[in-house]
Each structure stands twice: as C-alpha cells, then as structure tokens.
Amino acid sequence: MGKYFVITDTSSKACPLIIILVLVLNGVLIFAAQLNDLDYKIHIVHLGAKKHNTPELVTESHYQILESILGSKEAAKNSIVYSYRHGFSGFAAKLTASQAKNLSVHREVLSVVPSRILRLKTTRTFDYLGLLPSSPKGVLNDTNMGSEAIIGVIDSGIWPESQSFNDTGLGPIPKRWKGQCVSGDRFNASIHCNKKLIGAEFFTEGLTDVRNGRYDFTLEDEFRSSRDGVGHGTHVAAIAAGSFVANVGYNGLAGGTARGAAPHGRIAMYKACWGGVGCVTPDILKAMDHSIRDGVDVISISIGTDAPASFDIDQSDIAFGSFQAVMKGIPVVCAAGNEGPNAQTIDNVAPWIITVAATSMDRSFPIPITLGNNLTILGEGLNKFPEDGFADLILADEMLESSIAQGQTKDKIVLAFTPDNMAIRKADSIKKAGCAGMIYAQSVIDPTYCSGFDVPCAVVDYEFGTDILYYIQTTDVPKVKIGSSKTLVGQPIATKVARFSCRGPNSVSPAILKPDIAAPGVNILSAVSDVYEFMSGTSMATPVVSGIVGLLRQTHPDWSPGAIRSALVTTAWKTDPFGEPIFSEGSTRKLADPFDYGGGLVNPEKVSSPGLVYDMGFDDYLHYLCSADYDDESISKLLGKPHNCSSPKPSMLDFNMPSITIPSLTGEVTVTRTVTNVGPVDSVYRPVVEPPLGIELEVNPKTLVFGSNITKITFSVNVRTRHRVNSDYYFGSLGWTDGVHNVTIPVSVRTKILRNYV
Fold first, then answer.
1. Which residue of the set 484, 485, 509, 539 is catalytic?
2. Does 429 qualify as catalytic in the annotation?
3. Which residues contact 220 (CB under 8 A, 6 or more apart)?
4. From 62, 86, 192, 232, the catalytic residue
5. Cα–Cα distance between 723 and 606 in angstroms, integer?
6. Residue 235 above 60 pLDDT?
7. Annotated catalytic, 539?
8. 547-584 pLDDT, tens per residue?
9. Domain Inhibitor I9 spans what residues (predicted)?
C-alpha cells in the first residue's frame, strides 16, 4: 500500500501556489500531479437541449456532471464560469486537458471544446435596395418601421449617446421582452437604455481567461461594460435598426439621412468582443443563451473564424448555439467572412444559419488625379483634403529605401503598386516617413484604404497605375496633383461581390450551398460613437439582412427560420436593382455565381411575398444530422430526447434547402424538395428551368396545384450529366411561377466521373 504526502511551496508571492502530490510506492517517489493555475483553460461543455425548464435545475445538473470528474460539488462550482441554462444546456468551466478528456466521455456530454478567439468580421444602403419609408405599401409601412422588432446583436458593444439610438417617436417596449440593461464602466443602465436600446449586457469570463486575468481595460481603450471601445458593434447595430438621423456624412462625403433597416426596431446588445483580443467563444455562447431567454426576434452575429470552417455541432460554438436558437424559432444571421476571394473560404456554414456575403452598391467616391501633362485620371478614395497644386511624383521601388531613410519623400507624391503584403508594408513605411500624398495601385480597388490618412490619397487599378508609371518613366520632372473626393450615386456605378467576401463551395458539407444571400457591405457609413465612419466587410452586410429579417418576423410571425431563409433566397435579385449583371471581384473578374452570393442580392420589398417557401422544421434538421453521419447518441443529446437514424441513412441531397447543390454527379441522380404555399390558396405553379451547362434537369410533376387542403407539395428533379470528364461546377436555376410570383433557387452541379474516394 502506498503513502501520500502533500508538499506545498509558498516561497514566492509572485508565483502561484503549487501543490505536488507525491506517492511513495515500493520505495520509489512518483510525482502524481502538479496542479498549477496555468494548466487550466476554459472549455465549453455542450450538453444539447435542456432537460429541465427551471434554470436553477439546469445549473444543478451541471454541478452534478462536473462533480463526477472533480470529486466535489464545491470544486465544480469553483470551476464553472458560465452555466448555459436558458436556450440550451451546457457550461464553460476551467479544466485541465486531462479533466476535459475525461469529461468528454461522460454519458450526458455531447462535446467538450477549448475556448477559442473569433474575429469581428448607412446613408445609401436601403435606398439602393428599395427599402423606402416613403413607400405607402412597403414593408416599412406595414410594420410601422419595425417598431415591434427586437434585434439581438452579439458584438463589441454600443455607444449609447449616438443619435442613431435615440428613441424619439417610439412607442412602449414590446411586452414580450424579458432582457435587462446592466450598468458598468461609463454605462448607466437607467440613463443610457431607452425605448430604442432596450437591452445591454457584457460577458468577460472568457476574456479574463485568455489574458490570464490581466486584461487592461484602460490600455486597450475599453470599458468593463456594454459601452463600445472598438466601434464595430455600434456600426453594426445602427445598420440593423438605427433611428433616422439627418445630415450625416464623412468629411463632406456620402451626405444624407442615416437609418437602419428597421428604423423603429429595438436593439439588444450583448457585448462579447473586446479590443485587442477579439470574441471569446464562452462569452459568445453565454450571449446567445441570454438572447434566447430574452425574447429577441433575430440574432445578428458579425463574427467568424478563418478557414477551415468549423463543423456544425461538435466544434463550432456559434453553430451549436444557433441550432438551439433556430429550434426555438429564432433566426440567426451570420457573416460569411472576409478572407475571400478564394474558393472554399466560406465561414458559418451550418445549414440552419443564414450566411451573408457582401457586395458593393451604386455609390463611389471618385478623385481626380491630374498629371503634369494635364491628363486627368479618376481614381477612388476617401480623400478629405482640398487640391493643393502640383507636387513631384515618384515611384515607390527598391531604389527608395535610402530616400525614405533620408526623408527625401516628404514633399513628393508617391505611386505605390501593392500586389502583396510586402509591397503594402513598404508603401505604409513611406507614408509614415512622410510624403505629400499617396497613390496606391491595386488589382482590385479598395477605396477605404485611404481612410484616416493625414495626406492626400487615391487608389487606382493596375491599368491606370501603369498609365501613371509610363508618365513617370517618360518625363524628366513628373508632376501630379490629387483632388478631393466627390460622391457619385446611381448609374453607371456597377454592383460587385466584394473581393474580401468569402466564397463557397462549403468545405464541411459540399451539398449545402453557402453563402445564402448577399447584401451591401462595402463603404457603409454608420455610427461608431458620436460620429459616423465608413467600414467594409461581411460584418456590415450581416445587419442589413438581420434588420430585414426583423421586419419579416413582424409581417409573418408564424414563419419558421427556414421559411424566412427561403423567402430571402427565392426573391433575391440575380442582377443589381437596375437590371445590370453583378460581377465578382477577384484575381480575375467574372459574373457572380451562387458560390459568390448564394441566391443573389437581398430584395427587401419582395421577401414578404415569396409565393412558395422551402420550409424546414425539426424533422428536416434531423434529416441533415443523420445524412451528415452524426451518430444516434450525439443527435439524442443535442435534441434532448432519444433518436435513431433510419437505415439506410437519408441523402443530404434531399435536405430541403432553397437550392440544389450536387458536388459529385456520376451519371444521374434524383433529388426531392417540398414547397409550402404561402400565397393565394388556389395557386397553380409551373416550372421554369435553366439547366447548368452540360446538365439535364427533369422536373416532376410538371404542375403544382394548391388548394385549401393542399398547402405542401413534394416534387422531384432528375439530374443527368452529359459530361464525360471531371468538371468544375456549372450553375443554373430552377423556378416555379404562377404568373405573379417567381420562386427561383440556384442549381450547382459538378460532374465526378473519377471519384476522390474509393
């Protein structure tokens, strides 16, 4: 029998208490364990659906599960930092790697994942989309500007003094609201919350853990409250549901009235993102848990990770929390990510999430660049400086290193080609060393690159950059002057899917089309504090859709999240609002396809009357989970009740998405979809088929006849390939029309004669 001794070391106050358990066995000293605070890391323990309706009982069950691993209830209580007990069941706890491993095999545990850090991913936007308050029969008029919509935003907080959050003209807070405003650093709940900003909470346990308890709020210009130290959350919230604010602009550009998609909607801010760190998953999940409890109509999440995309349930905390929200009827809208334009970079790919890509819109900021030979080229950018006469023009090449060091660029305007990060850093070093102005030549123009510059700045593409370079090389003393930016709205400005917007296909489940929909996300002017600034990203596109979903939930409160997603997809524009094609920015320009923008550009005035919807409910999500090879035990834990998948398992191709994506077609396959009539009772629909190149589509039945007793009809599509080699994806569409409604879904097919897996 061995003997145990406990040795404690408290010799240094600067070091944490170390307890070493020594086992003496047969005369040999064995160091059994070393418990050090630094060995502990927050892990999220997913348990699935709740087994108790009382939150206190849910938390008690969490203690019992962890007690079986840690040995006592007191140890369990000390370990748990969050109990997820409202929308779903789970907890975040400080655990060692071995404790997490032991807990992962507990019979009630679905998965155990370590804490991760995720990243945060206007005056014109809604006019461009046709969402007009002046329209007497539009969705804004029908919903009183969204006055009953409650939009939950999980982000970096909010700047409550911004005029975008004034509550002038708003009625009482909706009675179903169960949330709260929490006071904190420079945030007084009784002063800063109102009938617009009706909820504000912040979550710091994950933040504290990743910084080992040493996050410096002052150093990071942050606030231990819902107040926004970054500006991102304020910007996003104002896009979704900002109030009307007249005479907004940025240094004289983009002037007009700022407003959100739902100008009278209510905002609930859940701060889980922090300056200098990002968004920590235990805090995100706690925010989702509270938003479900509080009664929001939609959850907006402009957060994501880098490729590879996370799996649906057992790894991605956003996907897990979103599943539970959707099961309770709350749509979740997420950003597609900003790591485009390469294929398979798309994020937030779970099929119950509405994933949003970003486009530009019909607004640009041209800048006249006049060369010494009086040739004027139109660049772009947000240049706030007035024209200041001609200055010497030089090229930022390898010969400039010594010139930079000697300060010889100070009175010169510099042309810099920026094909890669090294060139960008070199150009930035010139700007920091001092110059009279900068002209950036980029393969894809990003006008926001000039934001915040303290010298005149413009951006041109390589074609115009080469023209300027030729002038430099053929002129003894090249000169240039940069004018100030102007605002140009409407045609002929073309709409494009932004270069940064992540692209499909879906790398996790290739048969599930992602993104779902696109919205404006380039050069969006919105509040960041008391002022308004431009930001670009799928982060900005996401709240556009979130606000529209909030409006849609008021016009159709009985629609499921699946029906809402279907309505967005099937009514979307495949062109811009003027009927012009939408292009996709990238290394080569091309027409946009479903992997760029999903169903297309969101069309807010059509979405409330789609005619038919591809609805999804409990059984449909079971279909997906079984087809994705999740085992019966995991699915049962997720749902909170026993479930056994059928044998053979269902095909993912038959999952009732408002799209058809076939990643590996050999010969032919038949897929099925079910549509629900949400239009006139006695509607009759006929198919409109545009097959992908080299693909044959045969639809049965040829007519869908609805009536008072027939609201759902299942149809089949036989898909055959004529290709005899492995192909890339080809795109088409399948529509149903009754003469009034055109219910169109994208079709994406790739022929695989030789399979990758045998």
1. 539
2. no
3. 229, 274, 275, 276, 277
4. 232
5. 37
6. yes
7. yes
8. 999 999 999 999 999 999 999 999 999 999 889 999 99
9. 43-120
